[in-house]
Predict the 3D structure of the following.
Amino acid sequence: QASIINEALSSLCSPALVLDVDKVKINAQRMIDRCDKLGVQLRPHMKTHKTLECADIMTAESRRCIVVSTLAEACFYADHGFDDILYAYCLPFDKVERCAALSERLDLFQVLLDHPDALEQLKKRPLRDGRLWHSEGVELTGVYAHCGNSYHCRGLEQIQAVAQETTKLTLQFMEKLKAAGVTCKSSIGSTPSCSHPVRDMAQLSEVHPGNYAFYDAQQSVIGSCSIEDVAVRVLTRVIGHSPHRNQLLIDCGWSGISQEGVGKLPTGCAVIEGHPHLKLVYLTQEHGIVEPTSGLLDYSKYPLGSLLRLIPYHACATTMMHSVYHIYSKGRLVGKWTPTRGW
Ligand SMILES: Cc1ncc(COP(=O)(O)O)c(C=O)c1O
């Protein structure tokens, strides 16, 4: 199996980001099915991939009801026919005009406010054609919480305890709003909590996970998925042997995998697929240093030019290091996806 994959990928210059599109589709469909079963609207976050192709997979081609983390993403998706876009970021004052333009051109563009000063900024820029800002004091669409503390969990039980607590607190807050005469939507969710939802989440209006389409080594450590579910790899080549240090040099440094995994995994900065006894111990900008977890390296197994596949610790950070993603399916390279970039 490993040699079949490597043969298919051998035409790529490394480091290269490779996605197993069949795994992406399975991960996305599982989340759609989970939310359908629960009876809660899925509003997938686009931040991990920032591509049209994956957005279509995650929205089942509806091109509606998404979350973005930058205005560059919001504009990119709006330009390609997406609507009902939630910009999940504390309102940046320098970007109010661009938010206004999106609010005036889309059926629904939602912004987040977490400070009264931000509300003042919106009031200074009323929308044209009788439209209203979809945010607090103007037209409150809903309450949004990320559930980021689920990233400290290990295993199903802890994940569900955090999911339950966040759901409970959000629902209690909704009750208080209701008592004050305010009814609106509620949206929570991270990849860990939405990969193992609790029943009470059915009482929420929406959930908004994003990483789940790719997953990564971090999510497998948390317990959101198994390592086999991870759809993303960085292809790298052995470019040097250092027998005096018992090390290999590879052509992927932090500019190919990101610094996110440093010090986080027993196998170093990433998992080296199919080589559990290798550890990625150090990254420079363009180089990675690999050691065995114990004993002496057998260099005959890793000739110069041989391919290794890294499973990144944090997919969202690793994808940001690449301007193109190579798409792999059933033993073949089948295309490329180009993400949007910027803020
Ligand atoms: C505001 C916000 N909402 C939703 C998400 C998606 O969560 P996850 O990455 O766990 O899928 C993130 C992720 O960072 C986020 O920052």
